[in-house]
């Protein structure tokens, strides 16, 4: 029997799953996508300057190398174009049901009953569910008094208001993470005045971007092995230099020196430099990789505001030092990153809710599967985010693992990860986490309010590949009879 598979989300994860099913000749799948187009985060994040600070040739599927990248680091429109190219080439678009939000998934003892919104609210049964909703899909808006009374225009960076022309405006950007660092340089020259509200400085290292001209692209297209070798080199470089820094190994100090040199080179004013110097180790929060952010902050029409925000008034943002009048507020305030799979309601074996199981923070074996939730698999799930390499690599490992599980489903009925395997996994994860830089000295989107790191993978990506490619069955069991 070929299992029926529901894939939730048509971003990098969901599309990868759909493509691998197609390639394996399994056509009994449906992709549910709540928006009206594919692309996930690369459809949602269309702010000026949106792009990826992981090199193009690595930020793509290993099985679909692409010689058309025009830059070393891809911009949003090119990444979206790449995903559209993949969906068309592997003919998975026909299987995507757009504007179909999955609200509820209930395991009935044999199958998953999904409640979806399209066409009209109804329930459909599937043998397997693969969640590809990502970690950064729901914008986080801060809870600042007076926000709703603001008379100007306000929006989140991931919901950019393209109808609102910023030319000549007085603009506030709240936040200075990777999104803010990309958009600020693009808008700084257009606006009359830009107030960047920084709560915590970030470590910033240069992004050695460059264009790939027609000759380079021709070489990537025609020289056998060149593209693969380049991709391999980029991958190994990140693994050999950035990962040890996050594990507080040999490269932690060189990374810090490189970031401080970048700050010194780009920000001559010592007062501004002091404001921008972090007081925690690099990598504790996501390192910003950008060469245009600091120069934008040194412009005459840009202020870096570190005074505490007290409230938002109809006219602007009031800090402990007074009111800054603005007509536009951009919330570059990140995402609800630790609320995995929300707002879907997921009810597993014996009526157990996932929300209840994840009470102390989300966790899953390999970030992929959980006891009590048979035949339910996650892509880019808990503890699979990286601070140093390509998430697409991780997604491919996860899809390969799920594909290896599928043949075992038909003979044995639904399978779930063994509780003792999950417990051992959690213990190993905790032990590995202890040596990583994320634990101390900073707040970040990698952890819950209680300080548990639920988002990041503490090992190397080569270790992750090895663990996910082990034959899966010893870790799983058929569900116990009730
Ligand atoms: P983020 O890194 O979570 O940054 C949110 C920013 O908003 C922080 O500066 C935070 O300050 C600030 N903030 C939040 N609530 C606030 C409040 N109440 N008052 C004042 N400031 C507040 O979000 P992001 O920049 O959207 O990036 C999220 C992640 O997306 C990145 O870390 C990265 O993994 C991914 N991303 C990647 C790329 C790429 O090129 N690969 C590009 C963009 C985004 P604190 O630091 O003090 O909390």
Please describe the topology of this protein.
Elements lengths: L4 E4 L3 H12 L5 E4 L8 H4 L31 H14 L6 E2 L4 E6 L4 E5 L5 E5 L1 E4 L21 E4 L13 E5 L3 H11 L4 E5 L6 E2 L8 H9 L3 H21 L5 H15 L3 H6 L12 E2 L3 H5 L4 E4 L3 E5 L2 E4 L2 E4 L2 E4 L13 E3 L6 H4 L18 E3 L12 H22 L2 E3 L1 H15 L27 H8 L7 E3 L4
Parallel strand pairs: 1-2, 1-7, 2-3, 4-18, 7-19, 8-17, 9-10, 9-17, 10-13, 11-12
Antiparallel strand pairs: 4-5, 5-6, 14-15, 15-16, 20-21
Helix pairs in contact: 1-11, 6-7, 11-13
Provide a short characterization of the protein structure.
This protein has helices at residues 12-23, 41-44, 76-89, 178-188, 214-222, 226-246, 252-266, 270-275, 293-297, 354-357, 391-412, 419-433, 461-468, and strands at residues 5-8, 29-32, 96-97, 102-107, 112-116, 122-126, 128-131, 153-156, 170-174, 193-197, 204-205, 288-289, 302-305, 309-313, 316-319, 322-325, 328-331, 345-347, 376-378, 415-417, 476-478. By secondary structure, the chain is of the alpha/beta class.
What would your notes on this structure say?
- This protein is an alpha/beta fold and 482 residues long.
- The chain folds into two domains: 5-138 and 336-478, FAD/NAD(P)-binding domain (3-Layer(bba) Sandwich); 147-210 and 229-331, FAD/NAD(P)-binding domain (3-Layer(bba) Sandwich).
- 30% of the residues lie in helices and 17% in strands.
- The chain is built from 13 helices and 21 strands.
- A five-stranded parallel β-sheet has the order 3-2-1-7-19, covered by helices on one side. The chain has a five-stranded parallel β-sheet with strand order 8-17-9-10-13, with helices on one face. The chain has a four-stranded mixed β-sheet with strand order 6-5-4-18, with no helix packed on it.
- A hairpin with a 2-residue loop joins strand 15 (316-319) and strand 16 (322-325).
- Helix 11 (391-412) packs parallel to helix 13.
- The longest helix is centred in the C-terminal third of the chain and has 22 residues, at 391-412.
- The protein is globular, with a radius of gyration of 23 Å.
- The model has no long low-confidence stretch (mean pLDDT 96).
- NADP nicotinamide-adenine-dinucleotide phosphate (NAP) is lined by residues 51-54, 136, 142, 144, 157, 174-180, 182, 197, 199-200, 286, 309, 332-334, 443, 445.
- Residues 51-54, 136, 142, 144, 157, 174-180, 182, 197, 199-200, 286, 309, 332-334, 443, 445 line the site of NADP nicotinamide-adenine-dinucleotide phosphate.
